[in-house]
Amino acid sequence: MKILGINHSNDAAAALVVDGRVVAASQEERFSRLKHDPSFPDKAIDFCLKTQGIELGDLDAVGFFWNPGIHAESPLRRLTQSVRHHVEYLYGVPARLIPRLGERVSRIEETIHLASGRKLPIHYLTHHLCHAAAAFFTSPFEEGAILTADGYGERQSTTIYRGRGADLELLAEVDFPHSIGSFYAALTDYLGFRANSGEGKVMGLASYGRESEYVAKVRNLITLTERGFELDLSYFEFFHDRPHRYSEKLVALLGPARKPESAVDRRHEDIAFALQAVTEEVMLHLARMARKVTGAKNLCVAGGVALNCVANGRLQRETDFEKFFFYPAAGDTGTSVGAALAVEHLLHRGPRSMEVASEYLGTGFTAAQVRSVLDRGRLRYHTLKDPEVTAARMIADGLILAWFQGRAEFGPRALGNRSILADPRRKDMKDLLNATVKFREPFRPYAPSVLEESCGKYFGSDVPSPYMLRAYPTRPEMIDVLPAITHVDGTARVQTVNAKQNPRYYRLIREFGRITGIDCVLNTSFNIRGEPIINTVDEAIKC
Question: Is the dihedral of CA 338, 344, 348, 350 positive or negative?
């Protein structure tokens, strides 16, 4: 079967699944060059189809990441659900015997009649189901708990599923406006950064903060419950059409909001620290709930909050799960993959391949195509027999290297195919990159790419982290050895690399280790501030 998955929201994207395997996926921003582009992903769809040599009429189905049917469901559904629970509790009447007056619309379907006469079904699926499907069906687990957390779906903001084989079962949910993603976005807005974009900046800023009175103040904005959590909504405005996502009551509590692009002071750092600390507490609570209600030993995590690598590191260290899978395109981008896989497995009952999906699903170019661009621009170039060796030597000599090879990564992280690489041993490298290459805030950290077998040598865990979604402490004796990739709090957002995952990148790091004795390089995305990651050869040269 050939199934197209579509996400048409923040970070619009398309994905193509053929016979159960994800064969192509990309964000629309990579083609439009508008960061976080929410437009309908027609260019991404065109890419996915062309990369497999197929047309729209060759598809068997389309999965869409959102279910508008939920917005049309009976307003009695919530009331009758509550009544059912109370009747069952007070009178002992089994829930299955109580009439359901307002059932939730799990999905809707429509059919497009193509010019060829074929009918193409479109399945509108719930947002968090798509998050869960992306995380579980691309994981290596036959069974596991799935935790999804973001700003909001149709109504849900957080869910816990149990995954078994090719099935997903919803066990718990928290509904908007109670949302950990919207909570973090509101404080991101308060701190002067763009919501749904600057959360990673706030996570980096938090490391400069300290334990202060703001931790208790921020903690009081959210209450942990048996069903998940609840926000004190009087401090927020993200559920209204207002200029900001926070209310004046939050300003009265924490002080004046920071103006965008203004100086960052100690108070801002401490509030970011408090926000991060409370978010980690909520995620730990939800993960422990997932462990309890599923009894599973494996945990899959998706949704925008799963991009918080510091929280992910704590989940790995402080919960009872044995194995973890953090979906690389955890934000809304990944729901395109989830929508296609949900149609494949949940609706058409296709078997799982149990092959962990590649993160390299975007555009790729042949050597001839690269040469064509270089020749058109009348640029001098050399063809290298062993580019990994040359690249490693250049990095070891202190040069900053643009590294463009293979197919582009799907998701927000550059993982060795569209990367800028540098020497992690140089103390001045972080400031140099921020000021003269990336043109971004001076507090922003950089990540290490390390050989998988050497991870425990430099960092406080040897568990593979292939998608740069886990923060590990740098070993004390290595902090001065690796200053450019160790954040101010002594941690690093680690990417482990093995020869199967990315052979060429693996060889580069291995060669750098042979030259320097350090099996690790600094890795950041191939772009400058405000732009999406580079997608084509022309854009690479321009950048």
Answer: negative
Q: 3-state DSSP call for residue 335?
A: helix
Chain segment 450-471, per-residue pLDDT in tens: 999 999 999 999 999 999 999 9
C-beta separation of 33 from 532 below 8 A: yes
Helix-then-strand count for the chain, H and E: 17, 19
Q: Which of 360, 290, 296, 285 is nearest to 328 (CA)?
A: 360
Q: Cβ of 464: how many Cβ atoms within 10 Å? A: 16
CB atoms within 10 A of CB 394: 16
Dist. CA 407–CA 15, nearest whole Å: 14
Residue 21 near residue 356 (C-beta atoms within 8 A): no
Gap between the Cα atoms of 400 and 476, Å rounded: 26
In the structure encoding, which two tokens stand for residue 488, read together? 């101010």
Reduced to 3 states (helix: H, G, I; strand: E, B; else coil), residue 472 is: strand
Q: What is the pLDDT of residues 47-59, one digit of tens each?
A: 999 999 999 999 9
Per-residue pLDDT at 98 exceeds 80: no
Could you tell me which residues come within 8 angstroms of residue 392 by beta carbon, excluding any fewer than 6 positions away?
508, 509, 511, 512, 514, 515
Q: How far is CA 450 from CA 57, 204, 512, 520, in A?
A: 44, 20, 11, 4
DSSP 3-state of 387: helix
Q: Read out DSSP for 148-199? A: EESS-SSSEEEEEEEEETTEEEEEEEEETTS-HHHHHHHHHHHTTS-TTTTH
The encoded tokens of residue 312 equal 């992910």
Cα–chain-centroid distance for residue 440? Answer: 21
Q: How many CB atoms lie within 10 A of CB 93?
A: 12
Residue the block writes with tokens 């960052």 = 264
Closest alpha carbon to 470 in 310, 242, 273: 310
Question: Nearest 10 degrees: CA dihedral of 374, 379, 384, 388?
Answer: -80
Is the bond into 503 cis (omega within 30 degrees of 0)? no
Which H/E stretch holds residue 101? none
Q: Is 22 helix (H, G, I), strand (E, B) or coil?
A: strand
Write down the pTM of the prediction: 0.92
Find the helix or strand (DSSP H, E) in which 346 lies. none
